[in-house]
Amino acid sequence: MIQQSMISLQVDDYTHFKIDVPNSNSLPLLNQRYHFFMGGVPAETPMVSGAAPTKAPFIGCLRDVLIEKEIVDFNSVIYHTGVEMNTCSVETAESGTFGLGSDVTTVSSGQDYSGPEMTTESMTEIEEAEPDWIIEPSRTPSETFGQCRLPVVPAQDPDVSVASGLRFGNKRETYLEFKKKLRLKKRSDFGVEFKTSEADGIIFYIADEKNSDFIALFVKNGKLVYGFNCGSGPVYIESPQPINDDRWHFAEFSRQAKKGKLYVDGTLMNEASAFGPANNIEVVETFHLGGLPQETLDLPVVQRNLKNVMTGFVGCLKEMRQRSQAIGKWTKNHRSGVGPCSDKVEPGYFFGPDGGWILASRRYLVGLDFDITLQIKPRNISGVLLAIQGRRDYLILQMVDGTMTFTVDNGRGPITAIFKPEAEFQFCDGNWHEIHAVKAKNVVTLSVDDVFAQPGIGVPGVSSTDTNHGLFIGGHPRPDRLTGKQSTSDYSGCIKNIVIEGIELDVKPNMLKGDILSHVCPTI
């Protein structure tokens, strides 16, 4: 018995041992959830030094175990190995060895024991994990451009390790694909650590060939949802509170026959049972983390299973476990879109040196007035920030050798406002800069960090910019066709908080093209 001031042990209701606890803060927090082992501790589970005089497992029989006045049902435990259920041999011991048959392992006094030997059957439940669940950065960091503060290619984070996890959602259709035979027929117990700030996203999905039987974990409207179907109809368990606060959370979603439970950070969110007589789940070997192939997402049955969550997970995941065993290495990192989860990032969109763009609108009419605000953190001093190219009329915002230039042509020649900072490399000083460009009929204005440039004034009476073409942010697919382009290189750096005509741009994955990281901007 553990109390705040005392730990006591009673044997056969007669012998009583107890010790006082002078400092209750030294005890484990009993309001949290822990893994509980009986009879031994798995070899891969670390033990606090001095917690026990030996790591040798218990050899013998156990029954009538009560925890917090509740009897333990051994038939419903999450995982066991080397244990015979519902039987207890009582043969006599000879030569210091307990008579439990020829398979008994003899352990001498004081000898460390690495845990029970895994049988062939238990090893097929899940393959051994790779030692490193980590992805090395695909690029070699570059030097800085001139006197810019940050390198054109972000530096590698020295603090990234296996424990950091992996980042999903930086590019379109990012997911990890696994091909492993998981034994989930009668029961399953998965655990995964995650963090996200997005409202929706697929974390885990496994199903049979027809997607009738399935197990899924996903985020919908900011809440965590666990769903499964044994064949008689789906059941869903949802966290009552949002979990998209960009903090690490641990989710454990388990199933015993048709009864499922969802825990978040050790707290039971809810439990529910599926309807109908079916108790078993049959699945194929292929399953996914962080998203699904597009051809799978296009299936109506999958959309129903995921309650119409159609987007991949945006955030970080740490190695997933099934019955406390790591699921190991994936077979496919789609488009190499999953990478290390560095903490040295901030919100925004990173444009790499190979060029990329955001297609904000396929057909945009500038007309009489136009207003855009965006924040930039460049890593070079030239590049297109905004471009709309019509047959003759156009609008373009660009950096040209360290100056900011906003040009509009209504059909009677370019109208330009130029902001020239005090230093050539001022914009790439490692800080965010707010750009505000406005076209009002035949007048254009430009400000940087609330400092205004001289406005440009065009021909009176010619006020409309007649375009019906794509509006591109951060670059353009055909820069050679941009009439007013003066920059000699692609923009490299970050852009965020894009507001067009007073409405913040909602960037969807299909709007991103080229060398872009979405949702994150490296800070190193």
| Mean of residue pLDDT values | 85
Count of individual beta strands: 36
Question: Between the first and last Cα atoms, what is the distance in angstroms?
Answer: 51 Å
CATH class of the largest domain: Mainly Beta
Query: How does CATH name the architecture of the largest domain?
Result: Sandwich
Q: Provide the β-strand percentage band.
A: 35-45%
Cα radius of gyration in angstroms: 30 Å
Taking pLDDT < 50 over at least 5 consecutive residues as the criterion, the unreliable ranges are: 90-132
Count of distinct structural domains:
3
Oligomer: single chain
The outline comes out as elongated
Helical fraction: under 10%
CATH topology of the largest domain: Jelly Rolls
**Largest sheet: number of strands, sense, barrel closure:** 14 strands, antiparallel
Number of helices, counting only DSSP H or I runs of 4 residues or more:
3
Structural class: mainly beta
